[in-house]
Specification:
Layout (H helix, E strand, L loop, with lengths): L27 H25 L3 E7 L2 E8 L7 E3 L9 E6 L1 H6 L4 E6 L2 E6 L7 E6 L13
Parallel strand pairs: 3-5
Antiparallel strand pairs: 1-2, 1-4, 4-7, 5-6
């Protein structure tokens, strides 16, 4: 007689864990809107920096020294320094045009306006800051104006 084979133990069934891929689908319209919002914030910050960046500094002479009285922004395509709102009548004013704008204005005129007084100054320096000094007439003094 042949021995009967003993039954092998039954295999145990272990659960198989199946990992499903994470749902990384970004809703296209929401992602697009977020991207546009980020771009607008960056562009708005750059525009604000550009608009608030002063490229001209104005000083007034007090006795023997100059004192800062204002900062202005002038445009390279229409360079005008407006002294309106400043108490400069009958005083000497020094204007410092920063290097970045002075280089673009080389060979052009900067118009300086103080009330009804207007003077034009030729930018004749290519490197560094450009300085010029203007004697503003008082209210009772006649103003000498250069032709436009």
């Amino acid at each position: 007689m042949t021995p009967t084979p003993s039954p092998s133990p039954e295999p145990t069934l272990e659960p198989i864990i199946v990992l499903e891929p994470a749902n990384n689908n970004i809703n296209l319209p929401a992602g697009l809107l977020a991207g546009i919002a980020v771009c607008l914030v960056i562009l708005g910050g750059a525009a604000a920096f550009y608009a608030l960046f002063f490229n001209t500094v104005i000083y007034i002479k007090n006795t023997d020294e100059y004192r800062l009285i204002a900062k202005r922004r002038i445009k390279w395509n229409s360079p005008v320094v407006n002294l309106g709102g400043l108490d400069v009548a009958g005083k000497e004013v020094a204007v410092n045009v920063k290097k970045q704008i002075a280089e673009r204005l080389f060979g052009r005129y900067i118009k300086t306006i103080a009330g009804d007084f207007v003077i034009r100054c030729l930018v004749d320096k290519q490197e560094g800051d450009f300085w010029y000094v203007v004697e503003i007439p008082g209210q009772d003094q006649p103003s000498e104006q250069l032709p436009e």
